[in-house]
Design a protein that fits this description.
Chain lengths: 637, 171
């Protein structure tokens, strides 16, 4: 059935839409390129590096917004339908990158595309409709201004097909709030690093895609066997039922037990009301059914209904990040109101993590009397004041009053107010997630070195939560590597899982399978790549794909000015020991871990720049030449 | 005994694993558009609703087929003789469940064939939302003379019966 020129596993084509002149181009996927970068995140950075050089302003038409998926998406491989979105970030000025589930990635493949690249900018609001290879840029005046849920409903009705998959932005992005996400259908966002804002700068309200094509695997019997093996491993995994019952919301109570919650803006690592706002509570009282991403056998998303005497509403989720962000981080113990706040954040199109940081940051300043009610335009930002929080979320999205101060992220908010930067928790201008790195040291190192700023999903060294020294000894030759409060071996741990993350984000597979359940190692991934694409690769070559992607992303950031000095964490985590709970007394020993990390990575320990040898080993000669021409590396060593 | 696939929409997560493995089993490629089962979804209300042929005993698709391409086989299943099919689409129109789909490649209807008795969608479904049941139909007469409350109750109860594999046919 497969045409001669099409690669197994791939759709085989790249779509470019230029919104300035409305030109549509379709390019063929090159096999050598596919072998080097596999797909998804790899495809995106490989083009972004060359097509969006330094000097491009993130909100200018010269920035490019890229959507890519990998060979696994659209096949029947479990947990395998992820999409990666990338551009230069308006929030951080470095790599902007976010990964999302749902059904869009598979639909894009069935429509005939592995990657969609948006260039230029329209002068009026538009949306793009991709229908089995027919691509149209359509007017979207009536959709502009609509919140996510309304715009999604209006657009699927206009297209007249319930199976259409839609990537969409909300009012926050339209108002150029720098931490706006791209939402898929409704509640699945590629939220981090302000990619929705990039989309809005192009006046692109949505991309709708529908495809009736197919994906064919190269070695069906090997593929079937692999799927059966993975199914069995998943169904018998100790995390299977907790994930199915609670999704990531289960983390909240677990994080309370080990004292790593971001309570009251990282001052309360344990809270007495944890159960009342936990995934367990949601499962007991709110959830009505489970939902899954495309081709996923671990349905970790939950439909919930809120029923109280004042109101009733339903939605899907929440994940741990949004849940902890709208509860413990801002000192709120009212779950109903937290769910309302999360719904609002999603519907307006904001990143829940950054939103929770800017609000909890302002609350900490307010509690220290560093921020007055004049400055907050009358908002009493006491811990847990949800009336104020709900009002503030809307004001952020519309850049009104005090919301306008917060709408560009915590660093710029501190600049505008002229204070509070020491309490602004970010790395490279990306706000920190809901875990205190003092009690989770591998994660902390991961935040410091991540190629997109403070985020766990670039490394997700979940095995350190096992607190099993045998595992660390076996995997990394260091028992401490898999102790959450350990220090030695964390460089190896983080580099290993960074490579795996980059690999699975490129394949289109979910991290819950590869990282958290720890099911996809290099040899199994090599078999998967062979079964799907027919490329015969060794486990070492597979490792190098992930490593290549991480190094190219690092090179992108280096070219934008990132150095060793930027691989750091906010001072509170390095200097102030945690005051209570099971992680009390700990700070994060970042320097020691960093040195080990650079050593493992083969990067210069003084500058943090990848060495010539490492870049050449990974086949990145072009990057070496680019670095030499820019004076980042000397002409010869 | 005639069998058919019974769906429990409250258990369905909308992962479409059934669609993928149905198309793979029948057509050797992964393509929801070649699947004989389809999950109809609505992300605003959390709906995931699989639709698949029920092999009704009084099948309108067979009745409207102008060429006899659709027929009932010796096991009681609705089957298609592809070479007789004129691709007119009358069967797709006639099915009150919308359980026949047009094959985008050759334009013939796609109909569940129960994979010869061991349906792959049932064995692959991660949440047991699909099962295979022997065909069982109950016929209900007009309910008016039993009163309004009875009518309300029985209309809602039909969907529960269907999840137990019991098709309700109104006279």
């Amino acid at each position: 059935m497969l045409s001669q020129s099409r690669l197994y596993g791939y759709a085989g084509r790249i779509l470019r839409v230029n919104l300035t002149n409305r030109e549509i181009k379709i390019e063929r996927l090159d096999e050598k390129f596919a072998r080097m970068y596999i797909g998804g995140r790899g495809f995106n950075i490989a083009r972004l590096y060359y097509e969006v050089p330094p000097g491009v302003s993130p909100l200018s038409p010269e920035n490019k917004l890229m959507f890519a998926t990998g060979p696994v998406a659209g096949t029947g491989f479990p947990l395998g339908a992820r999409l990666n979105v990338s551009a230069k970030s308006p929030q951080t000025g470095i790599l902007g990158d976010s990964n999302v589930g749902g059904h869009f990635a598979a639909e894009m493949k069935y429509a005939g595309f592995d990657q969609v690249i948006i260039e230029g900018a329209s002068s009026t609001p538009v949306y793009i409709y991709i229908d089995d290879g027919n691509v149209e840029v359509r007017e979207a005046d009536e959709l502009w201004g609509m919140p996510i849920s309304r715009a999604y409903d209006a657009l699927r009705k206009e297209i007249g097909d319930p199976r259409v998959q839609i990537a969409i932005i909300g009012p926050a992005a339209e108002n150029m709030v720098k931490f706006s996400g791209i939402f898929f259908n409704r509640t699945r966002p590629a939220a981090r690093t302000g990619l929705g804002t990039v989309m809005a700068s192009k006046k692109l309200k949505a991309i709708a895609v529908r495809g009736e094509g197919y994906v064919e695997v190269a070695k069906p019997s090997l593929f079937e066997k692999l799927v059966e093996e993975v199914e069995l491993e998943v169904y018998t995994h100790e995390q299977y039922w907790p994930r199915r019952i609670m999704g990531t919301s289960r983390i909240l109570l677990a994080a309370n037990k080990i004292g790593i919650l971001p309570g009251n803006h990282f001052t309360e690592p344990i809270v007495p009301y944890a159960f009342d706002v936990s995934g367990e509570k949601l499962a007991l009282k709110y959830n009505v059914k489970n939902r899954a991403c495309f081709s996923c056998i671990v349905p970790c998303s939950r439909v919930f209904v809120v029923k109280n005497k004042n109101e009733a509403f339903m939605s899907e989720g929440p994940e741990y990040e949004a849940l902890a962000g709208m509860t413990v981080r801002i000192g709120n113990s009212d779950l109903d109101r937290a769910l309302k706040a999360i719904e609002l954040v999603n519907d307006l199109g904001l990143d829940a993590i950054t939103t929770s940081e800017v609000i909890s940051w302002a609350m900490e300043l307010y509690s220290k009397e560093l921020l007055s009610t004049e400055e907050t335009h009358g908002l009493k930002l006491e811990w847990g004041n949800m009336d104020a929080v709900l009002e503030l979320i809307v004001d952020i999205a519309y850049r009104r009053r005090f919301g306008g101060i917060l709408a560009d992220g915590v660093v710029e908010a501190a600049e505008k107010l002229g204070k509070g930067i020491e309490y602004g928790f970010h790395v490279k201008k990306l706000e920190m997630i809901q875990a205190d790195p003092r009690g989770l040291k591998g994660y902390g190192l991961g935040f410091a070195v991540s190629t997109r700023g403070a985020d766990h999903l670039r490394s997700e060294p979940f095995v350190e939560l096992s607190d099993d020294p045998e595992l660390g000894l076996k995997m990394f030759g260091e028992p401490e590597a898999t102790l959450r409060l350990g220090v030695r071996g964390k460089g190896k741990l983080v580099a290993y899982y960074e490579n795996i993350c980059a690999l699975v984000d490129s394949l289109g597979v979910c991290k819950n399978l590869a990282e958290n359940m720890n099911i996809l190692d290099y040899s199994k991934t090599a078999k998967l790549i062979e079964a799907v694409t027919g490329f015969e690769v060794t486990p070492v070559e597979v490792r190098m794909i992930g490593e290549r992607v991480v190094n190219l992303e690092r090179a992108y950031d280096i070219r934008e000015g990132v150095r060793r000095v930027h691989d750091t964490l906010p001072e509170r985590f390095i200097k102030e020991p945690l005051k209570k709970g099971p992680s009390a007394g700990h700070v994060i020993e970042l320097d020691e871990m960093l040195m080990e990390y650079y050593e493992v990575r083969g990067w210069n320990k003084q500058t943090g720049i990848p060495t010539r040898e490492k870049l050449l080993e990974l086949g990145l000669l072009d990057v070496v030449e680019d670095f030499v021409s820019r004076g980042i590396l000397p002409a010869c060593e | 005994m005639v069998g058919h696939i019974v769906v429990d929409p409250s258990k369905c997560t909308g992962c479409r694993y059934c669609e993928l493995w149905c198309s793979y089993t029948h057509e050797k490629v992964f393509s929801p558009s070649l699947s004989r089962i389809r999950v109809i979804k609505d992300d605003l209300i959390g709906m995931d609703y699989p639709i698949v042929c029920k092999h009704c005993s009084n099948a309108p698709c067979i009745q409207v087929c102008p060429t006899g391409a659709l027929y009932r086989d010796k096991n009681g299943l609705v089957k298609l003789l592809k070479e007789k099919c004129t691709k007119c689409g009358a069967c797709i129109e006639a099915c009150s469940y919308g359980a026949l789909f047009r094959n985008p490649v050759d334009l013939t209807p796609l109909i569940c064939d129960l994979c010869g008795g061991k349906p792959v969608c049932v064995s692959k479904c991660p949440t047991n939302a699909l099962s295979i049941y022997p065909l069982m139909e109950v016929h209900l007469g007009k309910s008016e003379h039993l009163g309004k409350q009875y009518t309300v109750a029985v209309e809602d109860y039909k969907s529960i019966l269907e999840r137990w594999g019991i098709l309700v046919k109104s006279e």
